[in-house]
UniProtKB/TrEMBL annotation:
It comes from Actinomadura viridis. FMN binds at residues 98-100, 127, 159, 187, 270, 292, 325-329, 348-349. Signal peptide: none annotated. InterPro entries: Aldolase_TIM, Alpha-hydoxy_acid_DH_FMN, FMN-dep_DH, FMN_HAD, FMN_hydac_DH_AS, LMO_FMN. Residues 19-398 form the FMN hydroxy acid dehydrogenase domain. This is L-lactate dehydrogenase (Cytochrome). Belongs to the FMN-dependent alpha-hydroxy acid dehydrogenase family. It is an enzyme of class 1 (oxidoreductase). Its cofactor is FMN. Glyoxylate binds at Y45, Y161, R196, H294, R297.
Length: 398
């Protein structure tokens, strides 16, 4: 086996022909480049967080405080990053997390992300607030066949923003199932949008521009509620109906039984930060929890997501699958989250910056970089598989 990860190999070999990767391979540099490309409103929407953005900074600081302690001479010639998560086989423990309104970053939006995910074999979690419909994104989530036609289907999970109207929620679930989405992610931390000064200062909200409502406007249950298909005539009323229905702050743990009844596959709850909530998820028959603070976009002043991970992992044990997001930017970050008990991580902003900078190819670039960097960091630290990692591989220098 080559001492280089595949993507590294390809870059150096192309480099001999004087060809360089079009985007930086240090993914932390993408935000600055995206700022130059996007409108101030769209950039503020993706880069911004809640309040003073203290939690967004804490998410990164928590990664910086933890250090990997590399081990030597352990035969790392053969590496295998593959994992199976909630029934889905994955070539690496990395998913594309749910991010709505992607057409504000690039007109190709979620279908471009879906093509990139399928090309890399990674699982995409599609947001209810996507700018394209469940069905459109599924149609794009395929690999190219040898003849240039359609090849295989990508791995699909669906993220539900549970609307007030239960009939609408059931309709979303049915559409997702019919379109080949196998696992349900239910986001709990966004029952209402938080205080987000960057968006407030620019009076920028994608939905009011009609972006992020594709799944609602295309839904028969939604259409019935607004008196028929959405046209110029009832567009304003439809947006108001969306706004009234999007979040449901009245939800409680008892409501989860309803979802369990209406979804046959695995369910993971996203936004869990407290060990007691993780235990309640298990008690409610959930299959997984996603430790996430929404990238610091909801509760400013909240604990860094990485600091919440060990407690949740301990509370859950092997009774459910623990996933993680909020702050992943490098392969080393993935190693740290896995070491603290996550089975896999979700990427958020980095792949969206890739989308902004290069459409489908930009997303592919980000996915390939993070996988190659993960493989190399794992091997150079003395490990060959994600399952080899445990808290002992990390140090917290004073
Ligand atoms: C622009 C944007 C839109 C998002 N939309 C959603 C969404 O529709 N559903 C959801 O569950 N999470 C959403 N998230 C949160 C991500 O799934 C993820 O938790 C977060 O991006 C992780 O933080 P990081 O990007 O800083 O790593 C969004 C995040 C961003 C940046
Ligand atoms: O902006 C977000 O963080 C988010 O989760 C969201 C909520 C509603 C619609 C689109 C994205």
């Amino acid at each position: 086996m080559s001492p280089l990860a595949d993507f590294q190999n390809e870059i150096y070999l192309n480099g001999l022909g004087d060809e360089r990767p079009g985007l930086p391979t240090d993914l932390t540099r993408l935000e600055g480049l995206a700022e130059r490309r996007l409108s101030a409103g769209a950039f503020g929407y993706i880069a911004g967080s809640a309040g003073s953005e203290a939690t967004a900074r804490a998410n990164r600081a928590a990664f910086d405080r933890l250090r990997i302690v590399p081990r030597m001479l352990r035969d790392v010639a053969v590496r295998d990053l593959a994992v199976e998560v909630l029934g889905t086989p994955m070539p690496a423990p990395v998913l594309l997390g749910p991010v709505g309104v992607q057409s504000i970053f690039h007109p190709d939006g979620e279908p471009a992300t879906a093509r990139a995910a399928a090309a890399c074999g990674l699982t995409m979690v599609l947001s209810t607030a996507a700018s394209y419909t469940i069905e459109e994104v599924a149609a794009a989530n395929v690999t190219a066949g040898a003849d240039g036609g359609e090849g295989g289907q990508g791995a699909r999970w669906y993220q539900l923003y549970w609307p007030k109207d239960r009939e609408l929620a059931v309709s979303f679930l049915g559409r997702a199932r019919d379109a080949g989405y196998t696992t349900l992610v239910v986001t709990l931390d966004t029952v209402t949008l938080a205080w987000r000064p960057r968006d407030l200062d620019q009076a920028y909200l994608p939905f009011l521009r009609g972006i992020g409502v594709a799944n609602y406007f295309s839904d028969p249950v939604f259409q019935k509620a607004v008196g028929g298909p959405v046209t110029d005539a009832n567009r304003g009323a439809a947006l108001m109906h969306w706004a009234a229905n999007f979040g449901n702050p009245g939800l409680t743990w008892d409501d989860l039984a309803f979802l369990r009844e209406h979804w046959d596959g695995p369910i993971a709850l996203k936004g869990i930060q407290h060990p007691d909530d993780a235990r309640r998820a298990v008690d409610a028959g959930m299959d997984g929890v996603i430790v996430s603070n929404h990238g610091g976009r909801q509760v400013d002043g909240a604990i860094a997501s990485l600091d919440a991970l060990p407690g949740v992992a301990e509370a859950v044990g092997d009774q459910a699958t623990v996933l993680f997001d909020s702050g992943i930017r490098t392969g080393a970050d993935v190693v740290k989250a896995l070491a603290l008990g996550a089975k896999a991580v979700l990427l958020g902003r980095p792949y969206c910056y890739g989308l902004a900078l290069g459409g489908e190819a930009g997303v592919r670039h980000v996915l390939r970089c993070i996988q190659a960097e993960l493989e190399l960091t794992l091997a150079l630290s003395g490990h060959t598989r994600p399952g080899d990692l445990s808290p002992e591989v990390l140090a917290r220098p004073q």
